[in-house]
């Protein structure tokens, strides 16, 4: 059974159509890039999959079941903007995650944070933006999830931090789990992707294996994207 | 280990090439057991599926083989490794002659030039 299946997802806000007939199947063990320009519906789709927004039409199935409590247990989600209270210390946040998620591996999180030489008694608000992003990624990747959904994990961080983030994703996703990463920073991320989904004006316009696409177009995913969306 | 990849060329092809060089250069010796796909992927900082694909390529040309329960190994056939080594050297030499010819050296001139440089 597919890990994730979106069937005819539609979403409108008032008269404005945000997503139109999204059909999507995500198998196990893949890293998938959800690529699109700003404001094309990537985050909306991600929020629908996470049951944070309700689709106007269509349905989302995770392991064949409608989304809800069960799907939230097995999806580890990194939102675009943090929901954590920044006056909390990292120690407190780890406690919070331990209480909240029974598949959260606190030892693993502490180990990864120790690699970063991070003082866990520090409040989030006292850290740089890059460090806050790393902490949140570590927390999300320390859950033994079946599907990781990362919304713009590379936004606003320096290239060295981007490398750290990509490596952390690669070395920490569970075997058999899948990862969906939304971004518009394609050249940074394309080396780790199996598949790409191009989304434009609320529609999926391309869904392909990365290396097949490179062979067919004789270009990088970044270049193909630029050609397709030339302004 | 960190490598830069050319994003224009399928990553698995570039990976297969890198591993091939490891084998023909002798860094990976004949009969040597390879790391697991996952660990190799981590070393090269690529997706495990991409690494698997690169290994399949090398398996198809006989440079590595799988023992069902033990993992993957470099071929024990030294002749085969030598064959691929020569093939690779040939392509390097051809590229060299091609580049030299682009700047007006005949093949013989290029050889003479090499001898002088030695």
Helices and strands, with pairings:
The complex is a heterodimer of chains A (231) and B (118).
Chain A: E1 4-13, E2 16-26, E3 31-35, H1 42-49, E4 57-62, E5 65-66, H2 69-74, E6 75-78, H3 90-100, H4 106-115, H5 129-141, E7 147-151, H6 159-172, E8 178-183, H7 186-189, E9 195-200, E10 203-209, H8 210-217, H9 221-228
Parallel strand pairs in A: 3-8, 3-9, 6-7, 7-8
Antiparallel strand pairs in A: 1-2, 1-4, 4-5, 9-10
Helix pairs in contact in A: 4-5, 5-6
Chain B: H1 11-24, H2 37-44, H3 48-60, E1 64-67, E2 71-74, H4 78-102, H5 107-117
Antiparallel strand pairs in B: 1-2
Helix pairs in contact in B: 1-3, 1-4, 2-3
Written description of the protein model:
The complex is a heterodimer of chains A (231) and B (118). The longest helix of chain A is centred in the last third of the chain and has 14 residues, at 159-172. The mean pLDDT of chain A is 92. Chain A has a single domain (4-228), classed as P-loop containing nucleotide triphosphate hydrolases (Rossmann fold, 3-Layer(aba) Sandwich). In chain A, helix 4 packs antiparallel against helix 5 (129-141) and helix 5 (129-141) packs parallel to helix 6 (159-172). Helix content of chain A is 35%, strand content 27%. In chain A, the strands form 2 sheets. In chain A, strands 6-7-8-3-9-10 form a 6-stranded mixed sheet, sandwiched between helices. A 4-stranded antiparallel sheet of chain A has the order 2-1-4-5, with helices on one face. Chain A is an alpha/beta fold and 231 residues long. With 118 residues, chain B is mainly alpha-helical. Helices cover 60% and strands 7% of the residues of chain B. Chain B contains 5 helices and 2 strands, in the order αααββαα. In chain B, strands 1-2 form a two-stranded antiparallel ribbon. In chain B, a hairpin with a 3-residue loop joins strand 1 (64-67) and strand 2. The longest helix of chain B is centred in the last third of the chain and has 25 residues, at 78-102. Chain B is elongated. The mean pLDDT of chain B is 92. The chains are: A alpha/beta (231), B mainly alpha (118). The interface between A and B is medium-sized, with 25 and 18 residues.
